[in-house]
Write a structure and sequence with these properties.
41% of the residues lie in helices and 21% in strands. It has a 5-stranded mixed sheet, sandwiched between helices. A 5-stranded mixed sheet has the order 9-8-10-7-11. The chain is built from 13 helices and 12 strands. The protein is elongated. With 309 residues, the protein is of the alpha/beta class. The chain has helices spanning 9-21, 33-40, 44-56, 77-83, 99-114, 127-135, 146-152, 197-207, 219-227, 241-244, 256-262, 279-287, 290-302; strands at 60-64, 70-75, 89-93, 119-123, 141-145, 158-163, 173-178, 188-192, 212-216, 233-237, 249-253, 269-274. The two termini are 27 Å apart.
């Protein structure tokens, strides 16, 4: 429950000031009182009272150094986040069906914990579903491939928080081909997942000039459709594919032309937020370590760390 002191005028300014201070480094000089006052649209005295209130709660400690200004000496960022009223950051990512996705989820949790930002994960199949959840305010951050991020385009009001680099989203895409089928067979039944921007783009790239028949499906149905002989081929993430699809399949890597066209956009994970410059987003942008996410993911992939998310 919020301290009643933060419901007063000075307290409301203290809450806004808490958001401003989230990315302030320890031992750095604070902006001048009049700079805060101008930015927050209040008087100097109100800012001073708000800053004193934050100190009294133990959220921070400052030191005045005369003409050198005031410096931040100690800070409890979790307390500042709470006082700012920013809540828990909810991130949506793909279902963790592979060790790579488990590593990504573990890395995100580790990075948010290091940044002292309250965090929770939810899992949603399909980049479009995650984008819709972000834009409707149901989640605060989404994980998509760079291929999907680019496909959503300028009009989507997306902002890239971080690009985690190649092989952070998937290890490799390739063609799954039913035993006995050939890529040049006329009327080849090709599975396409309309909820996946990546899978649709990759399918167009591989099968654009071939006389194929498309079958709408989802990842959850793919194994059964192959087993029943209702689909002959699909383009899919090859991470641990034989553990998830029991049918007798051949896997064919994407050809050089396709890989050149993609340029790692299909394998790179992007953390995306709404382009609204909210205090929470700016705090995350300033504090989240993308390097910690990828290092943790790699540790999970190598078996040096157990998944924990």
């Amino acid at each position: 429950m919020l301290d009643a002191r933060f419901l007063t005028r000075n307290g409301m300014v203290a809450r806004r000031l808490a958001a401003e201070l989230l990315n302030q480094r320890v031992d750095s000089r604070l902006p001048r009182i009049r700079d805060y006052a101008e930015r927050l649209g209040v008087g100097n005295g109100t800012v001073q009272a708000a800053l004193q209130l934050l100190e009294n709660t133990g959220a921070l400690r400052t030191e005045a150094r005369g003409h050198l200004g005031t410096y931040l000496r100690e800070v409890d960022r979790a307390d500042l986040w709470r006082l700012a009223g920013l809540g828990t950051m909810l991130a949506a990512m793909p279902l963790p069906y592979s060790r790579r996705y488990e590593g990504l989820a573990t890395g995100l949790r580790a990075a948010f914990e290091k940044a002292e930002i309250p965090f929770a994960l939810t899992f949603m199949r399909g980049a479009q579903a995650r984008l819709d959840a972000l834009m409707s305010g149901k989640v605060d951050l989404i994980v998509v491939s760079r291929l999907a991020f680019d496909a959503f385009g300028e009009g989507s009001r997306l902002s890239r928080l971080a690009d985690l680099g190649p092989r952070t989203y998937v290890g490799e895409h390739g063609v799954l081909l039913r035993a006995g089928a050939a890529l040049d067979d006329p009327g080849l039944a090709v599975a396409v997942d309309t909820s996946s921007a990546d899978q649709q783009e990759l399918t167009r790239l591989v099968f654009a000039d071939r006389p194929v028949r498309y079958v709408e499906t989802s990842y959850m149905q793919l194994s059964e459709l192959f087993r029943r002989g209702e689909v002959d081929a699909s383009v899919w993430n090859l991470d641990e594919v034989h553990q998830h699809i029991a049918a007798d399949l051949t896997t064919i890597p994407l050809d050089e032309a396709a890989r050149g066209h993609l340029g790692d956009r299909n394998s790179s994970a992007v953390l995306a937020v709404r382009a609204d410059d909210s205090p929470a987003v700016e705090a995350v942008r300033g504090r989240l370590s993308a390097d910690l996410v990828t290092r943790t993911q790699q540790d999970v992939l190598t078996g040096d760390r157990l998944p924990s998310y």
